[in-house]
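Q: Given only this backbone (505 positions), what sequence would you predict?
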């Protein structure tokens, strides 16, 4: 006969055992999951994928879209870490699925990656080469079909735009004195921030912050999402210069004759360098050196960390504008000339004289320098020798700095037009007549050309969206069916962080 006091213990033991088994089974059968090192970026982006909850010591194929890019093997815990996949060069702007799938079954996990080709600051990057190497929508075959998507009235005069994370940022002149954030798809105003005077400086966007100069003598840092002021730094005079942002530092010039380096997070001055006259153009930064032109006729090379002078080159004339750095050469403009110097030493390489003043900075792509002049022409020059390859004549002065993307040169003219030219031959591919002169420089991002003119911001895209931007936003792509994905049996197991063998991008 069983002692009644023992019965509860004998009944409880199997219950606890059953519950423990259920918990352990639940952990063992938890659905796999993956995390991405980044959730957005341009084509060719390296994305590190980590996973957990898979079977132990099994092969896992990682797909971008439906293409098998990488094969990894899980550890004893069913995890893998930092397996590298690359967004294909041909991946169009928009969301794409990344899938991690156990080989020979349909057990896996999926996450979205957003492909976007931001134009985050004046002339695209801190070196100001004016080239968007990721553009894959607009090309010589499609650019002729550009049409107006939307325009936004920004007041009297518009700066050159920047584009980041689906938002267009621009500055406006008196009487608006504002920085605007516009929805890149529709042109709708998201926010605006009023400074104390005109904003001719092109905004720069980095790490969720907008940096811009104002004629009220200040540099501003604004929250990119809300427009709230994070900090401001007051120089001695007007800031017309467009900030260049790199490695957590904001480089900018001022009419008080100085080049400034400011901490991007706090606005604290790291250093300043005094030239002999106002610095109106945007400094360029490349390979640890800041290059800045001054109205004293010099182009300066300064150490990015300390501001110490590396060299200076006297170009003569007045107002050495925004420099461009590419492939070990720095290109400057002064008076009627564009000139090229060795970026390390400042040694003179060549110069080319146009028929009138050169006010815009140059763009450099595939061994060619593109620049406009007040003689009404856009020039293409050999980047190594300065010899002319072609020129295209507009109807008036060209003070807009060219933008280059996927074999096309985009530029504005004081004849009120925006042009798209074949980068190789200079042949006209497309043009659009605005309501006034075009001083603003274009930005090309995600298959759209943005530019300012006649107090408006314009956005030009390919046919398929309405002129008022009211077309529906592209829906999230259909999630790939794991049962339909086919592994690439030619792939070898990849080490974490290494490019998969056999993958093409």
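A: Predicted residues:
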């Amino acid at each position: 006969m069983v002692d009644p006091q023992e019965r509860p213990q004998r009944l409880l033991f199997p219950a606890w055992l059953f519950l423990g088994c259920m918990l352990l089974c639940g952990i063992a059968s938890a659905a796999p999951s993956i995390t991405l090192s980044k959730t957005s970026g341009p084509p060719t982006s390296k994305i590190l994928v980590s996973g957990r909850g898979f079977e132990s010591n099994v092969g896992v194929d990682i797909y971008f879209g439906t293409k098998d890019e990488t094969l990894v093997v899980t550890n004893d815990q069913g995890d893998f870490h930092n397996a590298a996949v690359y967004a294909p060069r041909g991946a169009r702007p928009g969301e794409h699925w990344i899938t991690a799938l156990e080989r020979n079954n349909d057990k896996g996990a999926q996450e979205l990656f957003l492909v976007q080709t931001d134009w985050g600051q004046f002339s695209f990057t801190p070196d100001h080469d004016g080239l968007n190497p990721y553009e894959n929508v607009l090309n010589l075959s499609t650019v002729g079909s550009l049409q107006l998507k939307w325009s936004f009235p920004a007041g009297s005069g518009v700066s050159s735009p920047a584009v980041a994370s689906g938002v267009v940022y621009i500055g406006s002149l008196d009487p608006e004195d504002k920085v605007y954030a516009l929805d890149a798809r529709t042109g709708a105003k998201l926010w605006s921030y009023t400074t104390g005077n005109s904003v001719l400086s092109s905004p720069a966007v980095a790490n969720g912050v907008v940096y811009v100069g104002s004629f009220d003598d200040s540099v501003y840092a604004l929250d990119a999402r809300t427009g709230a002021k994070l900090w401001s730094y007051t120089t001695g005079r007007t800031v017309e210069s467009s900030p260049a942002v790199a490695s957590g530092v904001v480089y900018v010039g001022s009419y008080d004759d100085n080049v400034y380096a400011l901490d991007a997070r706090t606005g604290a001055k790291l250093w300043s360098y005094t030239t002999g006259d106002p610095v109106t153009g945007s400094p360029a930064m490349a390979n640890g050196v800041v290059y800045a032109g001054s109205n004293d006729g010099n182009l300066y090379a300064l150490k990015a960390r300390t501001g110490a002078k590396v060299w200076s080159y006297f170009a003569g004339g007045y107002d050495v504008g925004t420099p461009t750095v590419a492939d070990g050469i720095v290109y400057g403009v002064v008076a009627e000339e564009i000139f090229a110097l060795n970026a390390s030493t400042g040694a003179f390489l060549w110069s080319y004289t146009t028929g009138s003043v050169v006010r815009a900075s140059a763009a450099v792509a595939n061994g060619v320098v593109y620049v406009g002049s007040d003689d009404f022409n856009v020039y293409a020059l050999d980047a190594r020798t300065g010899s002319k390859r072609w020129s295209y004549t507009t109807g008036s002065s060209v003070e807009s700095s060219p933008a280059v993307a996927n074999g096309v040169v985009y530029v504005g003219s004081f004849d009120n037009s925006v042009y798209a030219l074949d980068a190789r031959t200079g042949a006209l591919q497309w043009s659009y007549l605005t309501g006034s002169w075009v001083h603003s420089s274009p930005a090309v991002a995600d298959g759209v050309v943005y530019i300012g003119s006649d107090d408006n911001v314009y956005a030009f895209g390919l046919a398929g969206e309405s002129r008022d931007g009211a077309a529906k936003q592209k829906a999230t792509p259909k999630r790939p069916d794991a049962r339909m994905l086919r592994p690439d049996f030619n792939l070898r197991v990849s080490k974490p962080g290494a490019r998969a063998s056999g993958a093409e991008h």
